[in-house]
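Quick illustration, no need to memorize.
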Amino acid sequence: MAIALRNISPALIHQAQVGNKDSIDRLAKLVKERLFAYIYRLTLDGNLTQDILQETILFMIQSINNLERVDGFWHWIYRTALGKVQHHYRDVKRRRTVELSEDERLYISHRASTDYNDGLTELLRKELSSAVFAGMKRLNLKHRNVLILRCFENMEYAEIATVLNCSELYSRVLFFRAKNSLRRHLAVAGFGKRYFLIALALFGVITTSAKAASSTTITAASLDVGFTASMIAVFASKLGIAVTAVMAAVVVALPIHTSAQIIAISCFAGFCLLIMCMFDVFSS
């Protein structure tokens, strides 16, 4: 996988595995620089991010010898960090806070005040930044994670599947659902689909260092999941299940005398779901 090692050379990892202290220190520094933004985007909590970052780095140092494939280094690191975030939320067993605190509002306002040539006024940029930050907080961890891996870690779906230990098709379906969930949150805040790409880019800006912010770019191509994954996601949605159930009830209730009638009703149900799917795909 072309981007698996990113800015880390295989030689550096090998040297760390044999216990070279300088290599371990350099590896830890490089991992910290990239991993902070990933964990922060998952937790949206600065203090918790620092704790999990340190735990992940410590685990990496202690377990680097267990890494069998060097080209899977970042997948291993992301899985480790994600596991520690999940473990934290299981331990505390508390409902996630979804309202922005005053400190968060001030931070977002400060980071969004710079002109990033996005065509927005400063006021609109601040409002959209707050909306997307709040929307991301409202997503469940699984959806937030797949959005981060795809949009900000620039992973292919096959790589995401490796991190999540699932099929590539499921990673696409999951991304489709996460994307639509965030879009709905933004719509409630008054921002339609034309703001979606800008909103994601702004989230990238406000959750990373000023040095890296200029490189935050989200493209329409990165949001594409393919027609098959879109169809599966729509068919498995609550509305898709409801349509299927209604059609099944119709089949049971109607006085059907020929197999042709059953086929016709089934085709109509399938057509309804296909229209739903196409609407979701082309409006995304």
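The chain has three domains: 1-94, 96-224, 229-282.
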